[in-house]
Each structure stands twice: as C-alpha cells, then as structure tokens.
Design brief:
The protein is an alpha/beta fold and 302 residues long. It contains 11 helices and 15 strands. Strands 10-9-8-11-12-15-13-14 form an 8-stranded parallel sheet. Strands 1, 2, 3, 4, 5, 6 and 7 form a 7-stranded mixed sheet that branches. A hairpin with a 5-residue loop joins strand 6 (81-89) and strand 7. Helix 2 (15-30) packs across helix 11 and helix 3 crosses helix 11 (282-301). The protein is globular, with a radius of gyration of 18 Å. The two termini are 17 Å apart.
Amino acid sequence: MIHLDEGPIRELLHYEELIPAIEQVLIRFSSGKIQQPVRSLLMVPEHHGIFGMMPAVDGDVIGIKLVLVYEKNAALGLPTHQAMIQLFSAKTGEPLASMDGRLITEMRTAAVSAVATKLLSKPDARVLVVLGTGVQARAHVRALRLVRQFDEIRVWGRTPDHAQKLADALDVQAVSDLEEAVRGADVVVSVAHVNDPLVRGEWLGPDTYVNAVATVGSERRELDDAVMEDAAVVVESREAAMRESGDILKSGAKIYAELGELLAGSVPLPAGRRVYKALGIGAEDVAAARLVFDKAAQNHHA
C-alpha cells in the first residue's frame, strides 16, 4: 500500500485530466453504476467541528474520504477542511493507497464547477465574478479559466485587503461592492463562508449562470428565493440535495436534473437561468484519488 502526502499529489493531479475524469464519474453516478450513500456526519460541538464519512464503490475500486471541517481554523492559519482518502480493491478488499485529501477536495470541488460551467453557462460568457477569497476562490478561477474564455474576472470579499491580494495573485480585478461585483456577470461563483443568502436574484440577468458552492447543510443559504425562483436547479445527487441543501429545501425549489443526466444527454439542457447547487459527493473524491493512484503506480513501475 502506498501513502501520498499533499506534495506528491500536487505534482500528479492537474485540472486538464481531472475535469474530464469528473465528467465521466458524474455520468456513472447518475446512471446507477456507482454505489454511494449520502455522507454521514458526526458533530464535534466542543471544538466546533464536523467529521464526515463519504464512501463510494466505483467499478474495481472502493474508496472513502474522511473529511473534517473546522471553520474556526481560518483564524489559526490552518485549513478549514482537512481530509484523508483510502482506496481498496473492490475485488479482494486489499488496501491500495492512503492519501491526504485536502488538495483533492479543493481541486475536485472546482473541477465539478468547471464541468457544470462548461455545460450550463453561455458559450460566449465573458464576465466571471467569484465571491470569496479563500482556497476555493483561487481554485475556481484556475479551473474555470480552462472551460471559458473570460475577458473580465472580478473577485469580491468581505475583507477588501484579502480580495486585493487574491486579485493581485491571479491577475484579476477586486471589486469592493457586492452588488456591483455581481451585476453584469455572466457566471457567478459563490464560495464565501456564509449562513444566509449572499447572492440576490434582483442582481442577476435572465441568463446569468450561478455556481453555488459555499453552503452545505439544511439550515444554511447562500442564494435568496429570487435566485431560486424560476431557475433550473442542477445538482450532483438528488438524494444528497434533498438532505443537505438549505437553498433548495428552504426555497421550495424543484431540482431540474443531476449533472450526470445532462452530461449523458438523458435529460435535455434547461432554458433560462441555471443554478448548479454544489454539495460534493464521495464518488468525485474517489475518482480524483484513483487518478492520483494510477499515475503514482505508473511512475513507480517506470
């Protein structure tokens, strides 16, 4: 069994290969070829933490991600999301690999948004806004640049200094006013830590596309009712969304389709405003980890 820390994973995992791999795993998931329960959560209230378990069986590989979310870590200079992923042979149960899951979680989240953006945004989308200044903001700019040719990329954050630093690092524009940042954007990415709606429908055009990535949990929102009203809402997993998405549950919005159904062509692309509500599923982590494992094994044999 091999073990991989974040350094080697960074050398092996690239969006150019990860994005197509994520497309395929979403199709397999929605066509019933992957076994996967909705993640189970164990709360750690005394330390304001959450421990999540995300197993999946995909062909000849079984994997599980153990993910810990400690949002107060940001003040300590530590990652808010930390994780380990374990892979096993589905044929024999033998352990194949263990690997740090922090970077895989970061990259697969942005890769799924890239898949969704390629599928659901206007082909001529030119203005991208990213709400948030953390790890996911940086990852989303990098991943989405690979699927659309943006002329203008804006970043917004509650702390203007953080937004400016991110803008300088990525060669994009920092905008201090939230409404001004969102208005006129073709693609909106919400990755700021929030519990209540950040994006308002009145700011969006009729065909503005939204990647809502910031909130997981039945009580948390990042989009107001006006965003959800009349929008075609797309998710990774219907079952997960009906348990874990406050944006869907509290607005009463109907789920139009899973990403995998649209990618496979079994459901037609919707008209009008499109919203992808991201939650993350274990199958994506297993697919990314498998990509890393296969490349590490090739390098070892070479």
